[in-house]
Each structure stands twice: as C-alpha cells, then as structure tokens.
From TrEMBL:
Residues of the Carbohydrate kinase FGGY C-terminal domain: 255-439
Highest taxon above the source species: Bacteria
UniProt entry tagged with the keyword Transmembrane: no
Molecular function via GO: kinase activity
One annotated GO biological process: carbohydrate metabolic process
This protein's name: Pentulose/hexulose kinase
Family the entry assigns: Belongs to the FGGY kinase family.
Length: 465
C-alpha cells in the first residue's frame, strides 16, 4: 500500500491541507478560511473550536480518494499563538493570534521586571509584545481569573495536537518564539518562566519535530474520515516548513519568504546570537540539529497590496508592468506601513516616499516600493554577515515569487542568486519532506530535499544594478 503524507498548514487567515507524495508532488489541495474575531481593544483571536472544525474539514476534503493511503499527518502553524486550557483541557478563552495587540498594554511594565539581554541570550528571541511570554503576563495582570485556572498554556499547533491525541505536546520550532524556551537546551527556560511566575508543569511536553508520535485514536481517525494506520508528527512552524520546502537544508543556502510579511533566514548547525547590542537576529530551532537564524519583517507583500488597493486601483500584473518600464529615478520608499519588528525601528514607524518630484510617475513609485522591501531584507542579510554566517545562494517562497521583476530586484539588492521552486504551497511540501525523512524513506534531509524540491527559475544579480 502506498504511504502518503497529509500536510496541514494552520495560517492566521487560511488553513491549507494537501496530500503530498515522496517526490514532492501535491496530489490534492484544500483551503479553508480561518476567521479572526476582533474588537476595539486589540483582540484578534481564533475561536478554537472553529479552528479545529476548519482543520477537520480541510483534512477530510484533501484526503478524498486517499483515505486508506495516508500514513502520517504533519501540521505546521503560525507563531505567537496562545490559548490557555483548564484541568479538563478545555479552552478558557479564544486563541490569541500573532495579530493580537492587547499585550502592548502591559509590555513596558513587564520589560522592567526582566534582564532583556539575559532573556535574549537564553531564548534567542528579541523581546517583543507578540510573544506568548508577554501574552501570559498580560493574562496574569488583566485576566487573572483565567491565568489562575490555566492548566496548560498552548500554541495554536499544540491545541490541534491536543485535539488529535488527547495529550499536550509541542515541539522546539514553535516554542522558539514563545520567549520562554531555552534555544540552547531545547527545554523550557528556568529564568524566563520564573519571571512569569509559572512552573514547567503548566507547559506542554516538548517533543522533537522529527519524532513520530502515537497512532491517531480510532475515534479521531473516524472524525477525519481516514481508514488506514495513521500516525502524527509534531512538525514545525509555518516559516520553517516553507524554508524546508524550498530547500534551505542544503549548506550555505538562505531562505526568503515574500508573503504579506517577509523573512530572511538560514539553517545553521549551531545557535547564533547577534554580537551587537541591537539583537537583530532571532535564533529559532528548526529541526534535526539545525537552527533557523535570521529575522522577519512586517512589510513585504503588504506594500504592493497597499499600492494596489489604496493608491492606483490596479491589478498586481498591472503594477508589475508599470514598474518594469524603468528604474525608480532616485525615488526612495521606506516601507514601514505597519511599523517594524526591529526594535531600533519600532511599531510607531511609518511608510515614507522620499525625494518625490513632479517628474515621478506611478511606475517609479511602484518600483520604489518593491526596492524598499528588498532593502529591508538586505538589512537582515547584513546582520547575518556581521555574525560570520556565509550564504552562497537564496531559495525563495511566497506569493512575491510570482513576480519575476521583484525577484530580479531582490537578487540584485542582495547580490546573491535566487532560486524559486515550482511548488505552489512550499509549507506543505516542507512538512511532508520532514515526514518522509521521519518515516525512513530518506536517509538524510539533504537527500529528501534533492528528491522533493524542484527548482523552476533562477534569478542572477545584475552587476550594473
């Protein structure tokens, strides 16, 4: 019987499920929207039961025709999610997503109680209010009744694993962004949880992301519409899955992802911390003895979306056509439309066109927007170089890769060749790649990468640009 993998990517706005074979082909694909519940006080939550319902629906639909051939389910999920559950493992509130702003309310107060450099040295995480570390403190101060009733503090993926297996599990990559996992020991950090005033027994068990867990209980398997022997792998976070799915496990290969937000990271055999005071690098654990070193930016595809919807009322193809007519004519765009994660830039930063003259047209403005995002990634690349991390080429994923012009701009701005795979959903392929390795189909992740990741286009830097 054929052993196939069903990958599920739990996103902030969409949940995607697909059946992936051992050659990296996506045999089926299903998408389901994951609505966010908001209010005027910064709330941005997923209803946990609605989210699990979307997971079940996506699995059922993607698995149609493969119900008896699926051997492994591998989930990936967004970072910074937090949901407290009680003694009976039932949710005490909605799931706080990465878009939830309420922890800002107590952020500065909590910062004063900690040694920020010590937290960074231990966890690899530059303290920002997005992290569950700050969300738990907010609960403690503003929702104390929930904090006191909480048996486990879980991430979005931890909650799905709990619903599937009946026990609270997590893994190191999603836990790297909590702000309270020690990225050196891959265990909960004593100092970080002590300043929160919680014990390790209120956090889920950390299991290696390439370790296969137990079989799905029969009742759960029936709920998902599956009929074979199905196990679960803990998997990794969504950005890590994208990185693996575009080939970042190869040596000296960087990964960029150009979605609404963006990232620049490299898989590295040791944990690296920024040697400067600015803490520009976030050090996450990836999988299988590799750390994912780099950082992310808030403003990538959102810049083109803003230009499309609010400035020019044009399609993405029309934007690219205008930008292709020439250079930016010395027009600069600082792309911080939603502030920025870099603590030296901060949340109050904004977008700026600089050098605007009556000779500039929409093509210049669009191209300046593209270049501004590229230089934001260049700042992350410079931080990696400053810490002696070598990169010979880049693999790219995300919706931005559909624009050859933008990929050419990125290649020239970064001064590195960029390779783009032909995979529509690299996170699903990345999770499956990890799964086939865990099942023993491939001896190494490098072998799995070379068999499952297929390059479609290569963009080479232009020296004159």
């Amino acid at each position: 019987m054929e052993n196939l993998i069903l990958s599920v990517d739990i996103g902030t706005t969409n949940l995607k499920a697909g059946v992936v074979d051992e050659k990296g082909n996506i045999l089926s694909l299903y998408r389901k929207e994951t609505p966010i519940e908001r209010d005027n006080e910064g709330k941005a939550e997923h209803n946990p039961e609605v989210l699990f319902g979307a997971f079940v629906e996506a699995v059922k639909e993607a698995a149609k025709g493969f119900e008896d051939k699926i051997s492994l389910i591998v989930p990936s999920s967004y970072m910074f999610g937090l949901i407290p559950v009680d003694e009976n493992l039932n949710p005490l509130m909605g799931m706080m997503t990465l878009l939830d702003l309420r922890a800002k309310e107590t952020y500065e107060e909590f910062l004063k109680t900690m040694d920020v450099k010590e937290v960074y040295k231990r966890t690899g995480y530059t303290p920002t209010f997005h992290a569950p570390l700050f969300k738990i403190y907010w609960l403690k101060k503003k929702r104390n009744e929930i904090f006191n009733k909480t048996r486990f503090f879980l991430s979005s993926k931890d909650f799905i694993l709990l619903k599937l297996l009946g026990e609270p599990f997590t893994e190191p990559s999603i836990s790297s962004a909590t702000g309270y996992m020690n990225v050196n020991t891959l265990d909960w950090d004593d100092y970080a949880i002590s300043i929160l005033g919680i014990d390790k027994n209120r956090l889920p068990t950390i299991v290696s992301s390439d370790k296969i867990l137990a079989d799905l209980p029969l009742e759960t398997k029936r709920l998902l519409g599956l009929s074979g022997d199905v196990k679960v792998l803990t998997g990794i976070y969504d950005g890590g899955a994208v990185g693996i799915g575009i080939g970042t496990f190869e040596e000296e290969v960087g990964a960029i992802n150009i979605g609404t937000t963006g990232m620049f990271r490299v898989a590295y055999p040791e944990a690296i911390f920024d040697k400067e005071e600015s803490m520009r690098l976030q050090t996450y654990y990836l999988s299988s003895g590799k750390w994912f070193i780099g950082a992310a930016i808030n403003n990538a595809g959102i810049v083109l979306k803003w230009l499309r919807d609010n400035v020019f009322n044009m399609s993405y193809d029309e934007l690219t056509a205008e930008a292709s007519k020439g250079d930016s004519s010395n027009l600069f765009f600082i792309p911080y439309l939603t502030g920025e994660r870099d603590k030296e830039i901060g949340n109050i930063a904004s977008g700026v066109f600089f050098g605007l003259k009556n000779t500039h047209n929409k093509g210049h403005m669009i191209r300046a927007g593209m270049e501004g995002v590229a230089f934001s990634l260049r700042m992350l690349y410079e931080a990696l170089k400053d810490n002696n991390i070598k990169i010979k080429e880049i693999r790219a994923g995300g919706g931005g890769t559909k624009s050859p012009l933008w990929m050419e701009i990125f290649a020239s701005t970064l001064g590195l060749p960029i390779k783009v795979s032909n995979v529509e959903e690299p996170a699903l392929v990345g999770s499956a790649l990890l799964g086939y390795y865990a099942m023993g189909r491939y001896k190494t992740l490098i072998e799995a990468t070379r068999e499952m990741v297929k390059i479609e286009n290569t963009y080479v830097p232009s020296k004159e640009k």
